[in-house]
Amino acid sequence: IAENPPTNVSYHNNGCGNYLLEMSDQSSNWCTIESDPGVFTSLIESFGVQNAELSELWSLDDDSLGQMLSGGRVYGLIFLFKWMPDTSSSSGEDGAAHRKPLTSDETPPKLFFARQVTTNACATQAILSVLLNVDEESLVTEEHKNDVAVDCDTKKIVLGSTLGALKSFTMTFPPDLRGEAIGASDEIRSAHNSFARTDAFLAEESRNRASRDDEKEDVFHFVAYVPHEDGHVYELDGLRPGPIQIGKFESGNTNDMPWLTVARTAIQERIERFGASEIKFNLMGLVQDRRCGIRAQIAALDAAGSPHDDEQRLEAHAALAAEEEKREQWKIENDRRRHNYLPFCVELIRALAGSGKMEELTKKGDREDCEEEETSASIFGIKEGDVNDMVAAFSL
After folding, report:
1. Pairing state between β 244-248 and 282-288
2. pLDDT tens string 217-261
3. 236 and which of 144, 224, 284, 362 could share a cystine (Cβ 3.0–4.6 Å)?
4. Distance of CA 137 to CAs 140, 155, 252, 254, 379, Å?
């Protein structure tokens, strides 16, 4: 067993030479989080990861993949889809023999795969599946971080102490124990839960009402797609017993398009199994921090003595400003996600009720609800009486 294990995970010898893992008492308290590049980028940075970000893909065509590659390396893909409980983590079975999960003996020794043993942890687990499978040439480990200038010039990802310790400590573990270690990590769980909704009791009431109406909310699941040094692309789904080998690509190629093409085929096949009516998918790639490539370009122009009014320099500075603005917008949106707006809403309703305007606004809302009921139901799935129930609840 490696040194420096992740905190809050204890191991003891059972007397037979085997080490057993004891989970934290709070390891199952994980919230659901939004599939958003700003959320996921903030999440990995809270783990201590540097020089990486998540980028959203709106299409799987060559132009979209090429655009993602234009900013640097693509280390893995994270795919969100609707989970169906009557099948093996998807809407259809993996029929081909080469799509069956690999056994422990068949799994490459350097491929990090963990079973999901914690509810609601699939988003973070998919992210970790990519980060912990980044090839060693693209990583700066914690023990060597002080040996190099850890900035954009390295063009390498820094995992940080939390993930570095988790990877080294669990590398010889079976997939289920790796999943236990992830679920029992205070640092990882706290970072994940920092995006928990603050109006939890309203969400719980909504779920209870849906349950009373015999309705079920959609459940979504994340899986990861990563290239491996053995020349294969793997699908890493924590709900499956092992990784799935989905195809070969030309390894040793500095261009990531070959492995992305293999992953694209598997993702398209999965989407096709749902039918044309299902559109609730999301796809993101773990890429190099876009600012790294731009700053390297500016540094190269400085070294070459490029004039300040050079067109390339102006374009690079404009691109860097756009990236910084994107990061600032991500921060604003994440602050809003974490903010509790419930006290404001309650005070607003109280003020409206105290001023005598509540009844009038309620009637106006009822009229508008009746007029737009068919449109709202078809677009948003709003059921009759939901608005009245909400207004009545607030009026109390």
Report:
1. unpaired
2. 678 899 999 999 999 999 999 999 999 999 999 876 678 899 999
3. 224
4. 8, 10, 11, 11, 48
Give the count of alpha carbons within 13 A of 306, CB side only.
17
Is residue 171 helix, strand or coil?
coil
| pLDDT, tens digit, 9 for 90 and up, residues 103-131 | 988 999 899 999 998 888 899 999 999 99
Beta bridge partners of 19: 13
Whether residue 122 lies in the annotated active site: yes
Which is the catalytic residue, given 16, 31, 98, 122?
122
DSSP reduced 3-state for 27: coil
Distances (CA, A) of 211 to 15, 29, 216, 379: 47, 21, 7, 22
Find the catalytic residue in 16, 31, 192, 221.
Answer: 221
Q: What pLDDT, on a 0 to 100 scale, did the predictor assign at position 393?
A: 46
Known catalytic residue: 228? no
Provide the pLDDT for residue 262.
94
The amino acid sitting at 71 is G
**Across all residues in the chain, what is the average pLDDT?**
79
